[in-house]
Input
Amino acid sequence: MRVAIVAHPKKPDAPAAIQRVRESLVRRGVEVVLELKTAELVGEKGVEEFSEAVDFIISLGGDGTLLETLHRTGPTEIPIAGVNIGTLGFLTACTDREIDELSDHLTSDQVNITERCMLNIEMIDEDGKNRRFIALNEVALMRGNTGRLVSLEARVEGELLHHYRADGLIVSTPTGSTAYSMAAGGPLLVPGASVFVITPICPHTMSNRSLVVGDHSVIELSPSGESDEPILLSVDGRDLLRIQQESVVKIQRHEKSLRLVRLPGHSFYETLRKKLHWHGG
Output
């Protein structure tokens, strides 16, 4: 078995965690590959193309590190196991205190893998270039560096949904429902739900609420009206691009899913209770 490790380059506890993860895997006969910047943290040479010919990828840091790892690999069949340095995240399999349990699980006969749907995003940027992105959490159109609301139009399956006046608009997967969408007042969705949610950010009209649609839907977002206010596109909290007034951002389910390793005993509901400080166990 061959496993790649990708760590957050700026977490102070990362070097020690890298060594613990590697030593735990090597004791079980696993060959370990270190990503380039990850290897630099422990004074070694790594590889840029860390996802080549590996059975698993371990993302060491937090949910943000796992998202960055996904965006570097692109859509992949290789399962990713997130290890959180600190408290358990929504995407990570375990914390760095449970390294041995993860190593045992990865080398077992039956690894627990869940699939999370992703978004495929197509748009034309301000330079007229066709751009394509993937998103695990969400895609958002939002106002630029001004305090003014932006005008946005949303269509579902070609039919007009609404003209929004807001700080922005989010299209989220069930995985992303616990991220930016939740902060904007969107509903929480279980990871396996076959839906997307469209949520306005600070809308001008209080009647503008989140809408849940089937994940077979094609959603199109575009600037509306004659305003020249800058509108930015963000994918999973990154890739900030200014879009043209005539641009259309087309969003639909990606043909591939993210394969996440989950340790037995770590359920979504357990994580939800801990992260949101709910009572119940």
Notes: Helices lie at 14-26, 36-41, 63-73, 99-106, 180-183, 268-275. DSSP finds six helices and 17 strands in the chain. The chain has two domains: 2-112+262-275, 118-255. Residues 118-255 form a domain with the Tumour Suppressor Smad4 fold (CATH 2.60.200.30).
